């Protein structure tokens, strides 16, 4: 979702411009991006699962 076409009910301006506190808060909420878990941590977990699978395969 983007705020390019949203109009603020408080100041009647485009939300993307952030004219009032409501616009700025909504813009910050809409544009909040990024994973909660860093990509490096996800990669580490995948590598550890792969190594574990290899070890289990060799054992059985």
Can you tell me the residue ranges where pLDDT is under 50 for at least 5 consecutive residues? none
Mean pLDDT: 87
Query: What share of residues are in beta strands?
Result: under 5%
Kindly name the structural category: mainly alpha
Given the structure, what is the number of helices? 2
Task: Please describe the biggest sheet, giving its number of strands, its sense, and whether it closes into a barrel.
Answer: none
Fraction of residues in helices? 40-55%
Q: What is the global morphology?
A: rod-shaped
Task: Tell me what the structure shows.
With 60 residues, this protein is mainly alpha-helical. Helix content is 52%, strand content 0%. It is built from two helices and no strands. The chain has helices at 21-30, 39-59. The mean pLDDT is 87.
Provide a concise account of the structure shown:
The chain has 60 residues and is mainly α.
SSE blueprint and pairings:
Layout lengths: L20 H10 L8 H21 L1
Index terms:
single chain, mainly alpha, 0% strand
